[in-house]
Every structure is written in C-alpha cells, then in structure tokens.
Specification:
heterodimer, A: 505 residues, mainly alpha, 22 helices, globular, B: 288 residues, alpha/beta, six-stranded mixed beta sheet, 11 helices
Chain lengths: 505, 288
C-alpha cells in the first residue's frame, strides 16, 4: 500500500510541456521503444531479437563494404535495374495504402487510449513499414548491386528512392484514412482504388500502362547514380533529393493528415460500425458442414479476405504490365501464395476467440483439422476465381486444363503449408484493420519459404514428360498427409492456440 | 490474521440453492489440502454420478499452474471455485471442457472419463470461457444455430429465442458478436453454453462485466440447470453471488484446493491458512 501511495504522490510531467526539441526527442524515444516492443513481441525472446538485429546490421554493412570494394576492382555492369526497381517502387508505394506492412504494438487503435501525438503515430507507422520484410529482404541486395555498379555514392540516391517510395505509401494510407473511409475500411477502400486505377490504366494504355514508372522514380535514381559515378556532385545531389522529395512532403503534410485520420477513426469508432448486422441464413444440418459454413462466413466477412480478393484481381494486370512474359503457372503461384499468406497462414486468426468453440465442440481433432482445411481450400478457391477473372480481363492466357490441374495441386500445398504454419505459430491478427500477417517473422518466413519451394518443385515435376502430373499428385498427397498429421499432433495440446486467442499462457 | 469478509454483491435470484453440505466444511476447514485429496467422493458419500476430479495437474513449461486438484461435485449441485487471480481456476475449467489437455490426473462425468478426445463427455458439457468463445463476424443467432447443430439440440429455435430473451439479447439477435459490448459477449457465451442443456456447465467468471439484471438472469439459469440435475461449476470473484448461488465452495490457491465447504460455513469461519484475503469494503474509502 505504501508503494502505491508513494507513486500516487510522485510528480508527473505533462505531455505538452518542454521545448520543441525536447518533444521531438521524447517522440523519437517513444517510437524506438514501440518498435523494440514490437520486435521483441514477434520473437518472444528479447535476446534473440537483439542478436538478430545486430547480425542483420553487420551482414548488411559487410555486404555494402564488399560491393563498394568490388566496384573499385571490377565494377559490375547490371542493366536490369529499371525492370526490377519499377515494380518494387510500386509495391512499396501501394502496400501501406492497402493495409499491408507495419507492426501491431504501434497501431492507432492500440495507442488510442494514450496521450500520443500525431507525430509519433506518423513516425512509428513510417518506421514500422520500412522495417517490414518487403524492405528488409530487398533493400540490402538492391543497394549492394547499385554500389557494385555505380560505386558507394549510389547509396545516397538509393536511400532517397526507398524514402520516397515509402513516403508515398504513408501519404496514401493516411490520406485514405482521413478522407475516403474512416475506421476499418481504409485498406479495403485503398485496395479498391488501386485496382480500379490499375484496371483503368491498363484498359487505356494496354501493356504500356506502367511504363512511366521506369522513367520517373527509377530513372531519376539511375540518373543520380550515374552522376555520382562520373563525379558530378551537383546533379547527384539534386536527383537524390528529387527521389526523396515525397519524404519532405510527408514531413510537411503528414501531421495534419494523421490528425485528420485519427479524428475520422475516432468518429467511426464512436458511431459504431454500419456493417454489424449479419444476414439471416441458416447453417447446414450436419455438424461438420455447419462448422465449415460458419468458419467460411467468418473469413468472407473479414476485410482482409476482401482485400485478398481485390489483390488477386489486380495481380494479372500488374503482371501483364511489368512482366509481360510471365507464365500462367507463375501467375497462379504468385496469386495463391500471396493470398494464402492472408487466408491460410492466419487460418485460426479469423475465428479469434471462436477457436475455443472449435476446440470444445464434440468433434474429433482429426475431423477438426480436415474441416479447417476445407475452409481454407474453399476460401483460396475464391481467390483462384478472382485471378482467373483478372487474367481474362487483362488478356493473360491461362493455358486451359493444364493450369487448372496445377492450380488445384498448388491450392492443396498452400492449404497444408498455411494450416501447419498457423497451428505451429498461431498469432492474433486484426483482420479487419488489415494487420493481417502472422505477427511472428519466423512464421512469415516459414510459410513463404515452404510455399515457394512447394510451388517451384510442383512446377518442375508438373512439366516432366510422361506422367509428370501423376507424379506431382502423388507428391502433393504425401506432403498433405504429413502436414495434416503434424497439425493433428499439435492440436492434441492446443496451448499455443489458446495462448494466442484465449489468453492462456 | 487474515479475515474473510463477504462483501455485498449485486442482486441475485431469489431461489438460493440448498445448503446440505455442512458436514464437508467441518471436516475440511482445518484439514488443508491433504484432507481434500484422497477419495473425496467416498468421503462425501456421493456416488460416482456428477463430476469427479482426481489429482488434476497442468504445467506450462516449468510452471505448474494446477497442482493435483481434487474435488467432487454431485449432480444437481452448483459448485463455486474461488481464489485469487492466476490460481488456476480458468486452466482447470479449460481442462474440464476438453479444450486443454491435463498434464496428469483425470476427471470423470457420471463415471465417464473426460478429456480432449472424450467426445461423449464434450457433447454433454457447456462451457463459458473467461476469454473468447465467440466468432467476431458471426451473429448471435448464428452462434446459437452452430451450437445447436454441433450438439444436435432438438427444437433449438424456441430454446434459443427464449435464452436470448432471458438474457436481454433479443434486440441484438442478428448483430455480429464483434460489435457486442463485453457484458453482451458474456451473456451470449452463456446462452451458447446453456442451449444444449448440458449435464456439466462450466462457467468461468460468467458475471464479469454483466449488468445487475443480467447477473440475476444468469443466476436463475444456472440454478435452473442444477435443478434439472446438471453439475454447475462456477468460478467467480463476486462473493455475494457465490454465497447465494452455490451449494459448495472450493477455495483454490496456487493451483490446489485449500479448503471447501458451504458458503455459510465459509462465511462463519476464519479463512484457514490465509486462503482468501480480506476484501476491503468500499465504505473504508467513503468521505476520504
């Protein structure tokens, strides 16, 4: 009691006091603390997280030093930067608008009860997005390739390029949050807008729809790199700043945009959601079918799934514009694996607390697993239909029954991989505000690697003359059996699931 | 010296349960854990009917949350589990519901062993979890329909509508559970658990966040379940409600039962071995 009273009597400092520099220092401190919590929360082992960060930084530094040294002795002559960087810029610029990326601890809803300034929201959202896998996995390799080709001076325009793309993403996301649709529909509105714009550009300009991307941000950066290599420091600096200019715009306009988005969100939360009513439709009589139907309804009604469908629609358009020669099997693989990261790898997260009802139902564990797999297969099937529709609209040839057979096989592989990942590394995810990825980076990595390897092996075996598809079917069947067995074994002691969704440690 | 003080609780249903287990408390009061263990069923003279927990244990890593918990609850009894936060009540409930596997020990319902794979016992059990239990994007009615399908409840629509009306949820029948307030979610969890008229009703802090009339309605439904022969196991921190509703109360500390008896016995006696801390009355802070 004494301690409590002592704390009550201790002096407190108002959040609004202090100089501007002091406030900025505090804000940055809060952001760094939040990011640290998010990272530690993902791995659940702070020591491992610290070691991972240190290892990554050392590896990147060594890579860049090596690339710079290589440029000094035998410079590379990479010519494919344009075709690589244009889709990357598009990805980085659009992903926050469609709800991807970012951590969980620093989400607006989690911070809403605290006296946190808009600047903290903005900084933490920007930093969190930039520390996501789509940056961490790509930026070091890209920077090293640029440094090996144009010298270490190319790192500055490369940094400006990344800052600019990520700033565009933040500007779009916060503008959508404050304007188009408050509260939980931001990602859905953003995705719908992106799909509509892409489809319109494609219909108007055909396969040249995105060619401007190769000229604008990518072209500016490459101009700066060449200027740096030639020792023309004026143009080098100017073009680097041009690349990073969206970042300056974000610094100037970000705070009012964030303030407006937070107000919109609070107003939306206060007025309640308009989509709270569910249509009255009966469930099938057979208990298993009723469970499957209920779970499918839960997935279909989530914003994350609707965004995944829109993405599946958009993928053929982007693929046709950026990679004109992409095969049908590659297109299906991209769509299924990316859709599966939302639907399959979060298999249990859609039910949230309903997981307890699944586990307490008088249904055997084996049947539960098969029913859950059915749910995933059906939902991924919707994504396949969306890809096919997008491909038809974008006039991407799907090559008939051969692709259909491959798609079905890959569907089973992605289901098995996703269910295995979701059961082994379960994590709650707010699938209505689109922080829908599994929060553990290990889970993301496991899912992506397994599904990618599965797709590659399947594609390889599928094309084997004389019995390739039959061999692939047998392999897929064996893998699915193995994965289901592992899931059943995990579910015999579902403590991790309960820890993620029902508050049991 | 620790003193147990029953504070005034919210209004409860008038049909308070009978109190016919006084003998138990007289044996248990100063006996501690060892006396509770070792064939509680025979000591109480109860048949195997009802719920029997024998040395139920659950560990999470190196931490043992439930340590050899043993208790008996006869058919038609409302049994309360009381104890401080983190003492293992919810984990016990999850093991009994078949959601979580026990590390060791066992339990039976009417002589049938229960557990994760015991579908027969699961089919006769209703569970109100302390957290979760609802699909955020399904409506209240869809939850009840799903439950009816899983537990093969005959004539479920009439019963479901009645439960929703009793719990004042009828105006939110087709609202999604994700839009419910905390108290409404608790009531819906209770309706789902009660719909199949289970032989074992497990209610883990069912009154948490529920308004006074809701607590009254829940108490009436729990008492009604016991009256038709169900075992009702409730964990709660509302001592007033426990006193009015429960036939038998088990005090749990650090994962084990440290005392058991009727609420009246507990109210009259000082807590053994510091079982339950003194609850400060709000009046202490009045006029500060």
């Amino acid at each position: 009691m004494t301690g409590r009273l002592a704390l009550l009597g201790s002096p407190t400092r108002s959040a609004g006091r202090g100089t501007a520099a002091g406030r900025l220092r505090r804000d940055v401190g809060v952001v760094i603390w939040l990011e640290g919590r998010d990272l530690a929360g993902m791995t659940r082992r702070p020591g491992l997280a610290r070691a991972g960060v240190a290892g990554y930084v050392v590896a990147v530094a060594a890579l860049l030093a090596g690339a710079s040294y290589l440029h000094g002795v035998a410079p590379l002559a990479v010519s494919a930067f344009g075709s690589t960087l244009a889709p990357l810029w598009l990805l980085w610029a659009l992903l926050p608008a469609i709800g991807g990326g970012g951590g969980v601890v620093e989400s607006e809803s989690a911070l809403a009860p605290y006296p946190v300034r808009p600047q903290v929201h903005l900084l933490s959202s920007w930093l969190s997005a930039a520390l996501d896998l789509q940056y961490l996995a790509v930026v070091p390799g890209l920077a090293a390739a640029l440094a090996a080709t144009y010298g270490p001076a190319a790192l500055v325009p490369a940094f400006g390029f990344v800052v600019g793309a990520s700033a565009i993403g933040q500007l779009l996301a916060w503008a959508l949050g404050g304007g188009l649709r408050p509260a939980r529909g931001v990602g859905l509105s953003g995705t719908a807008l992106v799909v509509v714009v892409l489809a319109a550009m494609f219909l108007a300009r055909g396969q040249e729809a995105l060619s401007g991307l190769g000229v604008w941000p990518t072209g500016w950066m490459l101009t700066a790199c060449r200027a740096g290599a030639a020792g023309s420091w004026g143009p080098w600096l100017v073009w680097s700043l041009v690349c990073a200019s969206p970042g300056l715009v974000l610094v100037g306009l970000g705070t009012p945009l964030v303030g407006r988005a937070l107000l919109s969100r609070a107003a939306g939360a206060a007025s309640g959601s308009s989509g709270g009513r569910a249509p009255v439709r009966g469930l099938p009589r057979w208990p298993g079918a009723a469970l499957v139907a209920a779970a499918i309804r839960g997935v279909l009604r989530s914003v994350a799934f609707r965004v995944a469908v829109l993405m599946a629609l958009a993928i053929p358009f982007v693929a046709a514009a950026v990679f004109p020669g992409l095969s049908a099997t590659a297109l299906v693989s991209i769509a299924l694996i990316s859709g599966g990261s939302s639907v399959a790898a979060n298999a249990w997260a859609f039910d949230e607390g309903g997981v307890v009802l699944w586990l307490s139902a008088p249904v055997s564990v084996l049947r539960l697993v098969l029913l859950r797999a059915t749910v995933i297969v059906v939902c991924l099937g919707f994504l396949l239909v969306a890809v096919a529709a997008g491909a038809l609209a974008a006039r991407v040839p799907l090559a008939g029954w051969g692709t259909a057979g491959f798609a079905v096989q890959l569907l089973l592989v992605v289901t098995a991989v996703g269910l295995r990942t979701a059961t082994k590394y379960p994590a709650a995810a707010d699938l209505d505000s689109l922080r829908g990825r599994p929060t553990s980076p290990w889970a993301v990595l496991t899912y992506t690697v397994r599904a990618g390897v599965g797709a590659a092996v399947l594609a390889g075996v599928w094309t084997v003359p004389a019995g390739g598809p039959v061999l692939a079917c047998a392999g897929v069947g064996l893998y699915c059996l193995w994965a289901m067995r592992a899931v059943v074994r995990s579910l015999r002691n579902p403590a991790p699931l309960l820890a993620a969704f029902a508050g049991v440690r | 010296m620790p003193v147990m003080l029953f504070i005034e609780g919210p209004p409860v249903h008038s049909s308070a349960r009978g109190r016919d287990n006084r003998a138990v408390w007289s044996v248990m009061l100063h006996g501690g854990v060892d006396r509770v263990r070792g064939g509680a069923a025979t000591r109480y003279g109860e048949p195997a009917a009802g719920l029997v927990l024998l040395n139920l244990t659950r560990t999470f890593g190196a931490r043992t949350v439930v340590k050899g918990l043993t208790l008996t609850a006869g058919a038609g009894q409302v049994v309360g589990l009381l104890g401080p936060n983190g003492c293992g009540k919810s984990t016990t409930m999850k093991m009994l519901s078949g959601v979580l596997a026990a590390t060791s020990g066992s339990f039976t319902l009417d002589g049938t062993p229960g557990g994760v794979g015991a579908l027969g016992v699961k089919a006769r059990t209703g569970f109100i979890p302390d957290v979760g239990g609802l699909f955020p994007r399904l409506s209240a009615w869809e939850h009840l329909e799903l439950c009816a399908r899983l537990f093969a409840v005959p004539n479920w629509k009439v019963r479901a509508a009645g439960l929703l009306a009793d719990l004042d949820l009828d105006s939110a029948t087709h609202e999604r559970a994700g839009e419910f307030s905390h108290g409404m979610s608790r009531k819906l969890s209770a309706a789902i658990a009660l719909l199949p008229a289970p032989a074992l009703l497990l209610a883990d802090e069912p009154f948490d966040g529920v308004d006074a009339s809701g607590i009254d309605a829940l108490c009436a439904l729990f008492a009604g379940s016991a009256d038709r022969g169900a075992v009702v196991l409730i964990s709660t921190h509302l001592l007033g409600v426990a006193e009015s509703l429960c036939d038998q109360v088990h005090l749990v500390r650090a994962g084990t039962v440290v005392a058991a008896g009727t609420p009246a016995d507990l109210a009259d006696a000082e807590s053994p071995a510091g079982t339950y801390e003194r609850v400060p009355s709000a009046r202490q802070y009045a006029g500060r």
